[in-house]
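Notebook, p. 212. Picked up where the previous page left off. The plan for this session was modest: take the two constructs that came back from the sequencing core last week, fold each one, and keep the raw output in the notebook itself so nobody has to go hunting through shared drives later. Recording the first one now, exactly as returned: residue sequence, then the structure token string.
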Amino acid sequence: MPPHSTSTSEDANTNARGDAVPGDEPDDGPRLVARTRAADAVPHDAPWFEALVGEHAAAVHRFLARRTGRDEADDLAADVLTTAWRRRDDIPDGGELPWLYRTAGFVLANHRRKGRPVPVEEVPDEVGPLGSGDPAALFIQDEQVRTVLGALAARDRQILLLNAWEGLVGDGLAAVLGVSRGGADAALSRARSRLREAWAAADD
């Protein structure tokens, strides 16, 4: 029979009704939670990855094509998905697409370091097949829009395009930027404010 002295720590983690008190778990609590989550987690195996590709590959390609052109997007999207397979255990369940967008941003940045990036204001008017039905392509074809975006800091431009093109807000935007939800909300608000100021300056 276990000694009664062990009940002291148990009582410290329960209320009068015997319910566990949040934030005051016994020593084994975090390990138990981790084991439970591991048991419930979806295995990141080959079928999981095939489903990931089927659901998100087009969005990743579109993300890259909007920023670098269709030809380069093919190879870059393959790099992103290769990285996703290699680091599949790092991809959070329920947050797959923001993780892929964030990885695509790194892949694109590495690609641009090998050559000269094309500023937004110099995006060619003819955008090829992408322009056939993509509102984002029509968006950058407007000369004034491109000029105003080009006047912004790269970070503000990144945030605005993630919001306008990929529709990211809140937790999704925070995951791509690598900041907290509050930080993402504040960054988007500041970027929108600077966009309004740049747009007003362009109209003067």
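Okay, moving on. Second construct, recorded in the same format:
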Amino acid sequence: MVYKTENGGANWQPASRLQASTFVFDSFFVDDLFGWFLTSAELWETGDGGYSWAPKLTLDYAHHGVVRDIFFIDKDLGWLATSRGFVLKCSR
């Protein structure tokens, strides 16, 4: 389950459901609408505040390692840091 807050965390509402087996390593939002979350093998993207999600990128963790951190400067440009020392650029 993904939850959303609109008042700094005082209250939370369900935004969307994920598959029960989905483990989220990291998430990052650049504004109220655009954000990403990271599983062990995929980067997912939302443009509607977390109500719906779509896979953006499938990761080759056998080569790059497991992605441990994500950071975006805006909805078009970000980076992924991996356990093997790679920093991967992600853009539209």
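Notes on construct two before I forget. The helical segments are 61-64.
Flagging for discussion at group meeting.
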